[in-house]
Specification:
CATH topology of the largest domain: Nucleotidyltransferase, domain 5
Oligomer: single chain
Largest sheet: 5 strands, mixed
Strand content: 5-15%
Shape: globular
Number of strands: 5
Number of domains: 2
Structural class: alpha/beta
């Protein structure tokens, strides 16, 4: 874990003029692999009486040591912020696709009548027929939400398959952490949150598309954070802004926590009526969100 943890404990950050008992907390978690040091946690605090939101603490590069796992450290950080905790937002799924947990005799997904598989067939036939996809979907690695984001947004978003090679280890880690938490958890796709908010803030689309790029990503993150600060939507300490500009995982942990805050305010996109109720849904800013809504 970075040295920020001990520094934050000493600073004992609180919002000026705000009572601790009235704070609502939102935790954003950006996971790296279980043996990496990329995981970051952001703690946001909201004071309803003053209508003020600020980034309270930022924990970077959380990793295991000889005696304590990085997973335990993440769990302990979340547990320390339980008073007033509303949501814990992960940047990865923590539940396997429905086909992997189904207990029924499997006819193969060509003949499956389960709601989510039928939705996938219909979606592929109706929405993707013009593109003539070369590959058939695989409901044991994919979820409906991954289909949805490719075709129903104003920008095409490619969310990694929940059980794909990139996401499966993260899913396992998030599941391991989530099952021990006594808190409501939500899933966030930081890139989509950034896109929706950036459009409201009039950030250049080129910056919104390149926030993780090796060259120029830091500038993109800086532009977004500066705009957020200038509009008084969230108070960010200079040191935290610097860390989020330098570290994309810290930046995405903040986006997760901020999306959880928007959910609390009723400002995230609702699940479509025809979307399978037993399928995962991710939280992202509503399409009609405005600056005044967030202030």
């Amino acid at each position: 874990m970075s040295k920020r943890k001990s520094a934050d404990k000493k600073s004992n950050r609180t919002a000026p003029g705000s009572a601790e008992s009235k704070v609502l907390r939102f935790v954003g978690v950006s996971l790296g692999g279980g043996k990496s040091d990329k995981a970051c946690v952001a703690v946001l605090e909201y004071y309803p009486e003053n209508k003020k939101l600020f980034l309270s603490r930022l924990f970077e590069k959380i990793k295991s040591d000889e005696k304590v796992s990085g997973d335990m450290k993440i769990h302990e950080i979340i547990e320390q912020n339980v008073p007033g905790l509303q949501y814990v937002a992960f940047d990865t799924p923590w539940k396997m696709p429905g086909c992997l947990t189904c207990k029924k005799k499997c006819p193969g997904f060509e003949g499956c009548e389960e709601t989510h598989v039928q939705w996938m067939w219909k979606h592929q036939n109706e929405k993707l027929k013009k593109k003539r996809p070369k590959k058939l979907f695989t409901p044991y690695t994919q979820r409906c939400i991954e289909f949805y984001l490719q075709t129903e947004m104003d920008e095409t978003f490619h969310l990694h398959h929940a059980m794909g090679s990139n996401s499966a280890p993260l899913l396992a880690r998030a599941s391991f952490i989530q099952r021990r938490l006594n808190a409501e958890c939500v899933e966030v796709f930081p890139k989509l949150t950034l896109w929706r908010l950036g459009n409201v803030l009039n950030v250049m689309k080129s910056h919104l598309r390149s926030h993780k790029a090796a060259f120029g990503g830091d500038e993109s993150r800086a532009q977004f954070l500066q705009s957020l600060n200038e509009h008084n939507i969230a108070f960010l300490y200079n040191q935290d802004m610097k860390q989020m500009v330098e570290n994309s995982h810290a930046f995405e942990a903040f986006l997760c926590g901020f999306t959880a805050y928007l959910k609390h305010r009723g400002l995230t996109e609702k699940r479509p009526k025809n979307f399978p109720s037993n399928e995962d849904w991710i939280e992202f800013p509503a399409g009609d969100i405005k600056l005044k809504d967030m202030a």
